[in-house]
Amino acid sequence: MVMAFTVIRAIDDSPKELTMKCLSFGVLLLSLLLAACQSARAQRVAPVLVVPADELSRDPSLSPPAAFRSSPSPQPSPTNYTSVPHSTPSPVIVPEKTTYNSCNVEGMFIAITFDDGPNPELTPRLLDMLKERDIKATFFVVGKNAEEYPSIVARMAQEGHEVANHSWSHPALTKLGVESFRKQIENTNDAIAKATGKRPVLMRPPYGATNAGLNKRLSEQFGLKVILWSVDPLDWKYRNSNRVYTSIVQNTRPGSIILAHDIHATTVAAMPSTLDALLAKGYKFVTVSELIAMEIPPQLVRKDPAAATAPPQ
Questions:
Q1: What is the pTM assigned to this prediction?
Q2: Where are the beta strands (DSSP E) in 101-147?
Q3: How does 114-149 read in b/e, with b if 16+ C-beta sit within 10 Å?
Q4: Residues 6 or more apart from 146 whose CB is under 8 A from it?
């Protein structure tokens, strides 16, 4: 009201008086604004810190008293994560092989095999040659011969050779009925077991005549692996010792399974030079079962080029 009254009175004054009154009014207004600011500042009261009496004498190197320690910030509770099990890939199941004509091996290992015996004259002579060189072979015996000459079969096993099934009477197994086939296998197994005390685990079909169904029966019904060959000197056809020697020495590779027959005089006569030549090239003789046990995946085999290219000794 004072301001309004002052303004009304100013209308009736002279210009000089009006100017003075405006100045006075401005000063008054400024004073009011300053007073308002001071009043607002006075309302902001600073907090008062009360220091305990013993704090004034406390060693500054000590930690502050409990009353002045800041409370630890609450830690978030650990999250319980549920571990998700990693799925383990199922192992790749490789079907077990039931037939072999050679093996992938690392090293100069080979197997030499002899079919159709035992022969009462030639087989003991061959066993002497093998023993002299500390060579182990595999003999695929014909059942009726094994039954007739059990002492020779027993000697084979006693000297570390492997004795295996080559049928009872050497027929083409693919042409036999179920019962005839069974007798050819079982009777031969029995003759071998009687002579050696051990049943065979390998079988070579006469003439190499076999098929997938026959191989499956031999595996599932009799527990026999079918063994063919990778080196064939055709010694049954060509009765020539030099030809037997050359064919075997030139065609043998690491992992080879060599076919020969201990019922032919020319084959047995070729063995001393043939065995010596293979030994000179660094080959190591093992039984067929031992060779199979050495087999490794083909991509891991390190072939020795010298074994493939070295000339006959």
A1: 0.68
A2: 109-115, 138-141
A3: bbbbbbeebbbebbebbeeeebbbbbbbbbebbbeb
A4: 118, 153, 163, 188, 191, 192, 195
Please report where in the chains the tokens 């191989």 appear, as a residue. Answer: 215
- For residue 305, give the amino acid letter: P
Q: Is 166 helix (H, G, I), strand (E, B) or coil?
A: coil
Question: Position 1: which residue type?
Answer: M
- All domains in the chain, ordered by first residue: 1-29 (no CATH), 99-299 (3.20.20.370)
Residue 102 has phi, psi (to 5 degrees) of: -165, 175
Confidence of residue 297 (pLDDT cuts 50, 70, 90): confident
Contacts of 19 by beta carbon, 8 Å cutoff, 6+ apart: none
Q: Please name the residue ranges forming H helices in 134-255.
A: 143-148, 150-158, 178-196, 212-222, 241-251
Are 235 and 244 spatial neighbours (Cβ–Cβ below 8 Å)? yes
Catalytic residues: 115, 261
